[in-house]
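Narrative of activities, Objective 1.

The group set out to show that a structural description can be obtained from nothing but a protein's sequence at a throughput compatible with the screening campaign. Below is one input-output pair from the validation batch, recorded exactly as produced.
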Amino acid sequence: GHGPRAMTMWDDSGSDEDEMDPEEHMRMEALCRAFEDLCHELRFHQKEWCLRNPSYRYKGPAPLHMADRLEALARDVRSFAEEDSDLALQMAAEVRADHLAAQVEAARLREVEARVEETERRRRAEVEARREVERRKEREEQARLAEDARRAAGIQRASDEERDASRGPSVQFLAKRERARLEAEKLPTLFDLDALPDEVAGAVLRQMGAYELAATACCNKRFRDLARTDDALWRRLQLTSGRHPRWRVDGSWREAFFAGAEKIDANWRRGKFRRLEHRLHSEYTACVAMRGDLGCSGSADHDLAIFGLPPRARGTPLQGVGLLWERQIGRCVGHGEPVTCCKLAGGDGDDAFSPPTLALSGTAKGEMRVWSLSQMPTCPWRAEEDETWGDMATPGAHDTATPRRVPCVETRLLTTPETGQPHAQFFDVTTGCSLGGNGGDGGSFGLVAAAGAEHCAGVHVYDTARWGAACVRVPGFDAGVYGVAWGRGPFDNNVVHAACSDGIVRRWDVRAPGTGARLDAASVGESTGRNRRVARCVDADGGLFAFGSAYGTVHVHDARVPNAPLASPKRAHSDCVNAVAIDAKLGRVVSGGDDCGIAVQRLPLTLEDAQVTFSQTPQGVLGVAFDHSRLVIGCEDTTVRVFDTELGEGFVDGEALRLAMRELNRRTQGAGSILHRQ
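Output recorded for this entry:
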């Protein structure tokens, strides 16, 4: 192919240069520089050269205007050197030939894509036709079974009340509801619901959760009518359920609740997300955390990155500089080892959407650092109100294109005094007060529970109100710790959970002085294969705790009965589970593993046939964090991925479709057309 070659008209050894006219000499130098610049531009259009030299990024076949420039250069050089003129003409011809070949290849690919799309459309039509036939047969069978059940129960149905199952609830559903009603009539009645005044009934409804309200509305028509007209009930339900931020809505709270529930929950259930990618590190991402509209990620490149998430803390739309929020905002530099765990803390501990004021990070060598976020924007709405944010003309303004260096305010080396073993590889923080009862201000946090992967290192609890010796030191045991989590429910608010390498999740109550009180533990159970019983991660919330195993199973237990799972553990992943997160208010458990995917399960896990939503990722997942509508994952590459369930109607991930088509074409090259395979 064409490539840069040296011109021969510049000869340092000859005497023609001494006899050449100065103007001609300057013209010859200009032509040489123009040829060198043109050859440098051509390097970016040579695929083999770009593969050998990573500093050159391949930009596709050379455009035609480069051939025109080469021909013009050949005409100007001919008066000095005919060989160089022929060389430039030859390169121009090669550029035109490459451009024509690229156009032919693009046309061929478009034709193949069109054929593949047409074949896929026909296949989908055939599958849908077969499914429609199967559904029709199933409806007929269900109608026959329901009719037999009605006759056996003595239910008479008039012909004018018959309904077509295709235009309303299915016949099977109606029969099941009728059987449930008959069973409910046999239960003893403690009081008459219809005898309650509307004020009392409304007060009862306002104390119910989403599941209780739905069950009550299904069994009593009067309560259902009251719920439809009581907008204060839906306001309280929305503010306490954790599904949405605490902002003021326009219009009816009931409409806002159902709009969010139908849209966001359906996208979680179907695995339908708007996917964002942030290339923040030069090594793999080991951990992620989120709070408010900020996220952070720790990596093997020894740095901690602070980035903006899709804004949710307020309901008002963002404009201007607020649109630049979803990018890297700050960077924490100072660790000498890979960052293995990170957390965001501070702010209002009871409000998950309040902006954080501190970031914490730890390494496997025992170094823990506390970073202050007070000098950087932590809320997109506050940044938008700040007129100097992003204004490069204002002295001291924040440059939105350059991440701000986050200062370190505290550095601690956490090691066991007796053995010197480090234990800051995995840790968790509380949002409440310290053991001494001193509540933290807006920029502090409570207790830190830390542990390491080395055997016999134990678990240690530190009071941040007085950094120093650990206030609780759990004696070492013959197992390493791969995850630490504080209980965040009414029954385990002072309990530390530790996922251990022997397959046991150990629990301690830190209110006991000295070494803490050992509580009942949970275990992975029996599993086949080497090192399959290892408990790799743990998280707790709302009186529940979840942990994942190296076998790929995800376990959810109640803190009141810790040694018995809520349901039989499911193997949500085909390989090791590296990270798990649970939210009891949202009723959701999210896990990520080495099988390059994330699994979403719905609580309560009492139905054995409950489905697991699985979403594929390019690399193995090492860290997960989520809230009502956003999911942050860290993978075994340099990219942090944000999944957003706030989608528009008819959302189609066009980029994903194009990548899939390119991958399909790449795999079928040289193997014949996939259209002719049977």
